[in-house]
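[User]
Protein folding is very new to me. Any chance you could explain this protein sequence and its structure tokens? I have pasted everything here:
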Amino acid sequence: MNEQSPSEKVLESLESFGIPHEVMPCDPEFADTAAFCERYGIAPEDSANTIIVASKKEPVQYAACLALATTRVDVNRSVSALMGIKRLSFATPEKTAALTGMMGGGVTVFGLPEGMPIYIDSRVMERKSIIVGGGSRSMKISLDPAGLLLLPEASVIEGLAYEPRG
């Protein structure tokens, strides 16, 4: 049996939850958010990044956080309170890839391991549409943020992220 590619897993997840979306092909050289937005004329505030957060103590617990590219996830306060864990960090690219099967520049909230909490910053829901990763560096997904609410593990969180200063 052939194992699914990260992009196939993402598309299957979108279909299984009935989430309307548009696939956007992407040159892998321009998959990182800033380069993607510049190359394809996408406003950074219409692009959202998925960050995997991990507890520092065993057994390791994970959560996915979705925030606009113009903001930063508040791991030390907001995510810590949500997970009930004091010591958290961003999962390394290697750990993120091992856990999700997705590559940096393509990590997304679709196709994650079953049961992983998904925290969505409330600012994401204010956008008309957003662009998120497609599982690989060669695809992005465009969708109405309301579609995110069809994910069973998803919660919209006020103050999950903050706007960095200057």
About this structure: The first helix runs from residue 6 to 16.
